[in-house]
Amino acid sequence: MHLGLISAMEQEQTGLLALLQSPRRETCGMREYVTGMLGGTRCTCVLSRWGKVAAAATATMLIERFGVTHILFTGVAGAASRGVAVGDIVIASSLVQHDMDASPFFPRFEIPLLGVAQFAADATLSERLARAAQRFVEQDAPTLLSADERSAFSMREARVHHGIIASGDQFIGSQARLDMLREQLPGLLAVEMEGAAVAQVCHEFGLPFGVVRTISDDANEHAPVDFMRFVERVASRYTLGIVTRFCMPG
Ligand code: ADE
C-alpha cells in the first residue's frame, strides 16, 4: 500500500510529518508533497487547502505523479445529525456533493454524465479506520484533553459514527441551511468541503479511499467561532492519533 494522506489545513496534519521516516519533499502545483514511511506504510502527505477543486487537484496529483494506491482524507467537519457531537469522529460510508444541482437535466446531487450522486468509500479501508478511531477514542482520547479543555468545548465521551458525509464549496454556519441539507439528504452525519471531491476522483481512477472527520462545530450560527477554536487547539491531536493507529495497528 502507498497511502496518500490529505488534509485541508496545516492544523489538521501537525505532528504527522515529524513521524515520517526518511521524508522526501517535492513541490508541484503550489503544494508540498512529503513521502516517507509511517510504521510499515509508505505515505505521501499533503495539504490540499479548502474546497472541492483544491481537493480534486491534490488527489489527482497523488495518483498520477506519486503513484499512491489508496487515499485517506482526514480533518474536521460540522455535525449534521442530532446524535453527532463536537469531538465525535465520523467515518464516511458514502459522500455526496451537496452543491451539485444540474436539474432539470440531471437529478439533484447527481454528477452530470457520470451517473453517480453518492460515492461509496472503500469498505476495507473504512473498517480499518473505524477500528483505529475506536481504539483512539477508548485509549488515547480520554487523556488527550484536560477537563478544562473538555468543558470549554462541551465535549462528552467521544463516539465513532459511520455514515453519509456531504461536501460543498460552502462553510455551513446557518441552522436553516443545515436543516435544508438534512431534509434533502436523509442519513447525513457531517458536512465539510473536500471529501466528496476526492471521492469522485478516486471513483474515476478506480482507487480505494476513506474519509475520517472529527466534529469541530454544529454547522450553525456558532460554527465559525467553534470551528476556529477547535482547529487551533484540538484537531491535530485527533488526526495524529487516528492516523498513527491506522498505520501502526496493534
Ligand atoms: N468543516 C468544519 N466545519 C464545517 C462546516 N460547518 N461547514 C463546512 N465545512 C466544515
UniProtKB/TrEMBL annotation:
Enzyme class: hydrolase
One Gene Ontology term from the biological process aspect of the record: nucleoside catabolic process
Residue ranges of every copy of the Nucleoside phosphorylase domain listed in the record: 3-245
GO molecular function: adenosylhomocysteine nucleosidase activity; methylthioadenosine nucleosidase activity
Protein name: adenosylhomocysteine nucleosidase
EC number of this enzyme: 3.2.2.9
Pathway annotation: Amino-acid biosynthesis; L-methionine biosynthesis via salvage pathway; S-methyl-5-thio-alpha-D-ribose 1-phosphate from S-methyl-5'-thioadenosine (hydrolase route): step 1/2
InterPro entries: MTA_SAH_Nsdase, Nucleoside_phosphorylase_d, Nucleoside_phosphorylase_sf
